[in-house]
Design a protein that fits this description.
Number of strands: 13
Protein name: Carbohydrate ABC transporter substrate-binding protein
Strand content: 5-15%
Helix content: 40-55%
Pfam families: SBP_bac_1
Shape: globular
Keywords: Signal, Transport
CATH topology of the largest domain: D-Maltodextrin-Binding Protein, domain 2
Structural class: alpha/beta
Organism: Streptomyces klenkii
Family: Belongs to the bacterial solute-binding protein 1 family.
Length: about 450
């Protein structure tokens, strides 16, 4: 499982900048099930039938606090309004596995939990902690999600989870003022990306900001290059350690990445400086309001928007975004996400999972911002701006060609701990981008130990 640093990465750490504390809250049902179709107050359409659950209580846990907790609370309020159920939300803290394990040991697990990694779902299913999706939830899942998302929420052929909130981790955010000054355009391929970077460097501003102090950002760089260049089938094999990290496909990806990391003047503050830069700073220093930025571009997922806004930039104005450039035949779509699972039997838990699998639930949060859905039947008009619509469209358009964050699929000792495994090995690579073979040997040694244990 992931460490607390891993748990608060991405949207957790970014949105926390905008958030308040995290106290347990209750969402009391007001008795209006509203399950007869049409648009209720607030304009949320009813595309799924939900049962009457007046008098029933439901406890839900997730790592979300602050802005994310507020968004999810709106979803739970809509569920409560339509069913009459009383829903209590309790933040789990960073270590979901420890939280759920302690509750199960105490005989009082939550009814529904929102897990962050596929590995957690598999672990919980192996331990017998999870209840399979009922027929209604399974039908809603099948209607609204591609097989790839369904499979991520399954274990040994059974559906256990609904991927309700996802992230698109194949994005490059850029400072429009720098691009205009340098005469740069949005690149579509890796050679164009490197040419654009050089054009901006010649203009006098470092082109790329890298948050190398947080090793997970480097795994995201590698995963996007590898997925596009090697393809989804190879990606799956490497993610399962069915091919070694000494494979030629890994050499090819590291070589490509090394052309950026080893390029003269291409990284803000150079390689040593990038290794001292944390993720939030890598974003904000690209969009310093009024001052000359330290870089023109920064790579990371849709969750970087919170940091962009925190730097005083307006998305769609001073800050824009383009898809990660294609290294191979297709541009990559690497994702993350939170999956809802039932830890207790009962109609209320199953009804909530049915609701989370519907376009209705996704529409509630999408309209507030800070949310992305893989639900293919969610009207993109539900998102508040064109930038979010384009990011969401890329996830849907990927169909089953997307791949989940590879380091989230790996054992934590390899893919999810600072100062060791893949994080440390890629930080060493950032320090010495020419040592491809040595990096491969270290990655393979660490992966072999982690997967064996």
């Amino acid at each position: 499982m992931r460490t607390s640093l891993r748990s608060v990465r991405g949207a957790r750490s970014a949105l926390a900048l905008l958030a308040a504390g995290a106290l347990a809250l209750s969402v009391a049902g007001c008795g209006d099930s509203g399950s007869d179709g049409g648009a209720p107050p607030g304009g949320i359409r009813h595309t799924v039938q939900l049962p009457k659950l007046s008098g029933q209580k439901l406890k839900v846990t997730a790592v979300w606090t602050g802005a994310e907790q507020k968004g999810f609370t709106k979803v739970l309020e809509e569920f409560s309004r339509r069913t009459g159920a009383e829903v209590a939300y309790v933040p789990s803290g960073d270590d979901m596995s420890a939280f759920v394990g302690s509750k199960i040991a105490g005989g009082d697990p939550p009814d529904v939990a929102m897990l962050q990694q596929p590995g957690a779902l598999r672990e919980f299913a192996q331990k017998g902690w999870l209840k399979p999706l009922g027929s209604e939830a399974s039908a809603e899942l099948d209607k609204n999600f591609t097989k790839g998302w369904q499979d991520l929420g399954s274990y040994e052929g059974k559906h256990y989870g609904v991927y309700f909130k996802v992230s698109n981790k194949s994005l490059v955010w850029y400072n429009t003022k720098v691009f205009e000054g340098a005469g740069a355009k949005e690149p579509k391929t890796w050679p164009e990306f490197l040419s654009t970077a050089q054009l901006i460097a010649d203009y006098g501003i470092p082109p790329v900001s890298v948050g190398g102090a947080d090793g997970w950002t480097l795994t995201d760089w590698f995963e996007n290059v590898y997925l596009s260049q090697a393809g989804p089938e190879k990606y799956d094999l490497l993610a399962q350690h069915r091919i070694p990290w000494t494979d030629p496909s890994v050499k090819d990806a590291l070589t490509v990445l090394g052309r950026l990391f080893g390029g003269k003047g291409l990284l803000a503050d150079g390689n040593d400086g990038a290794l001292q830069t944390q993720f939030p700073t890598s974003v904000t220093q690209t969009f310093t309001g009024g001052e000359e930025p330290k870089a023109a571009m920064v790579f990371e997922g849709d969750f970087a928007a919170a940091n962009v806004i925190g730097a005083g930039a307006r998305i769609g104005k001073e800050a824009k975004v383009f898809p990660f450039p294609a290294v191979g035949a297709k541009a990559p779509v690497v994702t993350g996400g939170d999956v809802g699972v039932a830890l207790k039997d009962g109609p209320a838990a199953q009804a909530l999972l049915t609701f989370l699998a519907s376009a209705d639930a996704a529409q509630v949060w999408a309209g507030q911002g800070g949310f992305l859905s893989a639900n293919k039947n969610l009207d993109l008009a539900a998102y508040p701006d064109d930038t979010l619509r384009s990011i969401a469209r890329a996830v849907i358009a990927a169909g089953d060609g997307f791949r989940f964050d590879m380091s989230d699929l790996a054992p934590a000792s390899f893919g999810g701990k600072p100062g060791q495994g893949e994080w440390k090995d890629l930080q060493d690579f950032l320090k010495d981008p020419g040592d491809v073979a040595g990096t491969q040997r270290k990655l393979e040694s660490d992966a072999a130990k982690a997967f064996k244990s």
